[in-house]
Each structure stands twice: as C-alpha cells, then as structure tokens.
Specification:
Elements: H1 5-24, E1 39-41, E2 45-47, H2 49-68, H3 70-94, H4 106-125
Antiparallel strand pairs: 1-2
Helix pairs in contact: 1-2, 1-3, 1-4, 2-3, 3-4
Length: about 140
C-alpha cells in the first residue's frame, strides 16, 4: 500500500469506526433498534443498534476504499466527510427530539464534526494531481 494520506486515513478511520460499531453492541443489548436514547459507549457516546450498523457500514467503506487505491480512498473520504458534516449539523437539531433515530448526543456531534473536518481536509488537500488510473 502506498503512503497516500487518503489511503492511510481511510484505513485508520475505517478501523476506528468498525471498532466503535462492534463495541457499540456491548452496550445496546436492551436498546431498541431505533431508540432515541441509546446505551453509553465509553460513558460518553450514545449508541443504538441502528447507529452501530451505520458505524460498521461507514467503517467498512472507508477501510475497503483505503485498501484499494488512491482515487477510491479520496472519493470515499470526501463523501463520508460531507455526510458527517451534514449529520453534525442535523444532530444539533435532532438531539433530544423524537426524530433522533441515531441516538445522537453532544459527544456524537463532536465526533461527527471532527471526523468531517479531517476527512474533508485530507480529501480536498492531499493528492490533487493524482490521476484516476493511479494504484
């Protein structure tokens, strides 16, 4: 694997989000799938089963793209970074509402905003001259 910032970040964040998704199941045994109040992971991150599944999907996408090639890693980093930015903004309004199907809390919003900044910064700033055929 090349030392591309997008690939390294994709593999790292992919692993982190897969771990969060898996560990989330340890605190959601008595929580409904779409519960607006979930279990607390590490005492701060509120999760429900739906959110655990989304963490697993996001982690898998980042990891697979990071392991494949630079253009794929960059595209997935930008896409997920953009989605995290939107989720962070939406989370500001969803916390405490009956529409909070991801059991978002303030710690989750901070995680989403921080992930968005890093993914978007690397996706937009690194490897600007990489062609789509690079491996």
């Amino acid at each position: 694997m090349s030392r591309s910032p997008n690939r390294v970040l994709g593999v790292f964040f992919g692993g982190v989000y897969l771990l969060i998704g898996l560990l989330g199941f340890t605190v959601t045994g008595s929580v409904d799938f779409f519960a607006t109040d979930g279990g607390l992971l590490a005492g701060i991150l509120e999760v429900n089963i739906f959110r655990n599944v989304t963490h697993l999907l996001i982690g898998s996408a980042l990891l697979l793209a990071g392991l494949s090639n630079i253009p794929a890693a960059r595209t997935v980093n930008l896409t997920i970074g953009g989605l995290f930015l939107l989720l962070g903004l939406a989370g500001l309004f969803l916390v405490g509402s009956p529409f909070n199907y991801l059991a978002l809390n303030s710690a989750g919003n901070v995680l989403h905003f921080a992930s968005a900044v890093v993914l978007l910064a690397v996706g937009l700033g690194a490897e600007k001259g990489v062609r789509a055929t690079s491996v």
